[in-house]
Amino acid sequence: MSVPLLSLQGLTKAYPGVVANDSVSFDIGEGEVHALLGENGAGKSTLVKMIYGLVKPDSGQMLLRGTPYAPPEPRAARGDGIAMVFQHFSLFDALNVAENIALGMENPPAMKDLAARIREVSESYGLPLDPYRTVGDLSAGERQRVEIIRCLLQDPKLLIMDEPTSVLTPQEVEILFQTLQKLRSEGTSILYISHKLEEIRTLCDHATILRLGKNVGECTPAETSAREMAELMVGSTLHTPERAGRELGDVALDISGLSVPAPSAFGTALKNMHLSVRKGEVLGIGGVAGNGQDELLNVLSGETLTEADAVKLNGAPIGQLGPVERRRLGVLAAPEERLGHAAAPDMSLIENAMLTGAVRQGLETNGFLNWGAAKGFAENIIEAFDVRTPGPENAARSLSGGNLQKFVIGREVLQDPDVLVVNQPTWGVDAAAAADIRQSLLDLADKGAAVICISQDLDELMEISDNFAALNEGRLSAPRPAAGLTVDEIGLMLGGAHGMEVAHD
Amino acid sequence: MIRLEKRPQPSRAWSLATPLVAVLATMLFGGVLFAVLGKDPVEAIRTIFWEPLFGEFSFYYRPQLLIKGAPLVLIAIGLSLGFKAGIWNIGAEGQYIMGAIVGAAVGLAFYPYEAWYIFPLMVIGGALGGWAWAMIPAVLKVRFGTNEILVSLMLVYVAEQLLASASLRFLKNPEGFGFPGSRNLQSYESAFNADLIEGSGMHWGVVAALIAVIFAYILLNRHMLGFHIRLTGEAPRAARFAGVNPSRLILLCLGMSGALAGLAGLFEVSGPAGQISIDFNVGYGFTAIIVAFLGRLHPVGILLAGGLMALTYIGGDIAQSNLGLPSAAIQVFQGMLLFFLLALDLLTNYRVTLRTSEVA
């Protein structure tokens, strides 16, 4: 057999208190699309950081085409033909595409030549991109193109992609996959990190599965079912949220003709939005990040005030009421950003329980705070939602993302809301905890609450929603029953390929 | 290579220890400074920290400690409420002056009529004067988004001009033989903020400072408004989510700090200073910023810090006259205190580790 492009041999990396990678070995062949699968915290990021020269392994070695490879820094990795597209883009909104790309280069050519090369490369890979457009005006899919083209200009041998589809619509995913297949056919290897199993089954030749830092199995995705791979990732059988058949009641929350200007230059304006949720209904709102999700949540939580009639609860106008009054009426919300929005990072869980619980849990009388009761409430949340922490006195920032998310969702669910709005309720949460959070939302709906779930995870929305609406550039589509919607229909509701031209034939 | 690692949560031990370590480090480096200036460092440190409290003339210096410490604590408490919320009132000096001018004007309007209610009216006037002066940056910030740091600071210089005008024109003592300055309130019984116990230095300003400490402690630890103040400082978006109205909070915090600074000014002009004069203000409003941070924005900490600051002032004066230390050296010494405190503050949230770096 030929020498693999990159061979990892017994890579180990330990951080204080945790072994991120425990003698991980696998090979990536020439022209192979290799999937790296695993839950959050399984050690995928640490592993690719070692390949990309951001982190040095404690032990073990890497061989690049049979010769030892130990990049001291990313520049050396790039020099050896390894490129990486990060999950979070590092682009400057105010600069144009070519300027952004030039910033990442050692010796950028003249802007005119660079622009020409960007055009040439982007068109030959089916990712058309105007080098002179300002990045702030681009959709998430187009921003990703900038990052990919930045890598392709280096003519890489191995392209590492970290969760590339999490910000794309199904149609945009399709375009990306065609590009990756073209790269493969030219002999470029791709290391593809994801936890979306169906994608991996369609795209990847080979998969390595990590759990708790260890390589727990390899498979050929096309021949393995998604469920088998999921169970390898989690290490146990998965519990799927169940929903009892339930009757929908009267309209609880109603938005009609809502328009809100963009809060900042790079925010999204909400345009003539209509929606209504009934008691006992879960309304799923899908959409790619940055299409108005945060703005919609702020309108519902009372952080952004609107015309009184634009938002109604049980027929009564609440658009002019702030967060405290809305909580008193039973409208609760859990924002997406856990640290800094849903919770104060440096404050204890007791104080964070006080943050939204004061009104409904009777934690204050005449403005005076009852810390004993707040502690009891925090302890309830910790117990009911299995939040892993030494105690409620710990600062919010000391919790892992998934645990804090459980706390934030639990804090609202336990307050017995009549309407609950959640934005990205399971972002960065492991599969088992995500299932628990979804179950708690369904249980809440069973008890007669109206639930609005804003999410980018379409699988999640299909699993729990009664009705589905799509948010695209601040406009909300008419809701449709979730049962029976196909991926193509959802994709079109989400705005198709977001106006991105397709150059694949 | 020295690296800083963020602690998962703030270290309680360090947050208590940093002020003490900062004082010790200041003594150490201050001692070196004094030694370089050719003075006996041990003697200089002893003069500054020991002499005012337990020395031969401590019967004179101890009341001075209260007189100097009270306005610092009163102003610093007000400032700390805003600072905790990320609202930076740098102009307490101006609000202090305005409190003194308005309070004194109220008193002088009644001269020479004697009545029990004159002093309480002056107190209200002092608080209102400081409050109104602080409302200027507050309203400008809320309405037009101006920077309260710059506006409040610049208003200090406006207040200083008004002070000069008051002592030369509209509050000038008509029987003062042409000298600048108002009538002396110490000789106007209804307006005199006298020692409550003769010779103790314990005037109404000291009482007000203690009440302010208790009030701030309860507000911050037991009341929703205090919780919202802390929340706004820690995480402004989370505060909005919790239901805080940022404009209202700006008006409240600047208003409270202005009113307390105004009170400090009134108690000073009607007591220890006695009259409005061109050089009435001596920088309490600025020093209180140091006191607020030295006390870690905590009411009890501010009380202790105010005492410590007053001590270095008085001790510094003694060291100047007894040992011939230049006044600049004393100011450097006081500056060191804040410097070390802020530098060591890092240890509360970060851990220093010595090791080779991971990324070359």
Distance between the termini of chain A: 34 Å
Anisotropy-based shape of chain A: globular
Large-scale geometry of chain B: globular
Binned, the helix content of chain A reads 25-40%
CATH first level of chain B: which class? Mainly Alpha
Rounded to the nearest angstrom, the distance between the terminal CA atoms of chain B is 11 Å
Give the count of structural domains of chain B. 1
Question: How does this structure look, described?
Answer:
The complex is a heterodimer of chains A (505) and B (360). Chain A has 2 domains: 6-234, 3-Layer(aba) Sandwich (Rossmann fold); 251-493, P-loop containing nucleotide triphosphate hydrolases (Rossmann fold, 3-Layer(aba) Sandwich), CATH 3.40.50.300. Chain A is α/β, with parallel strands linked by helices and 505 residues long. In chain A, the strands form 5 sheets. In chain A, strands 13, 16, 19, 20, 21, 22 and 23 form a 7-stranded mixed sheet that branches. Chain A has a 6-stranded mixed sheet with strand order 6-7-8-3-9-10, with helices on both faces. Chain A has 16 helices and 23 strands. Chain A is globular and about 70 Å long. Chain A has helices at residues 44-51, 74-79, 97-103, 111-124, 140-152, 170-185, 197-203, 226-234, 293-301, 323-329, 349-357, 371-384, 401-413, 431-446, 458-464, 487-493, and strands at residues 6-15, 18-28, 33-37, 59-64, 67-68, 82-85, 158-162, 189-194, 206-211, 214-219, 251-260, 270-278, 282-286, 311-313, 316-317, 331-334, 364-365, 368-369, 419-423, 450-454, 467-472, 475-476, 480-481. The longest helix of chain A has 16 residues, at 170-185. Chain B has a single domain (40-324), classed as Orthogonal Bundle (ABC transporter involved in vitamin B12 uptake, BtuC). A two-stranded antiparallel ribbon of chain B has the order 1-2. Chain B is globular and about 75 Å long. Chains A and B meet through helix 10, helix 11 and strand 18 of A and helix 9 and helix 10 of B.
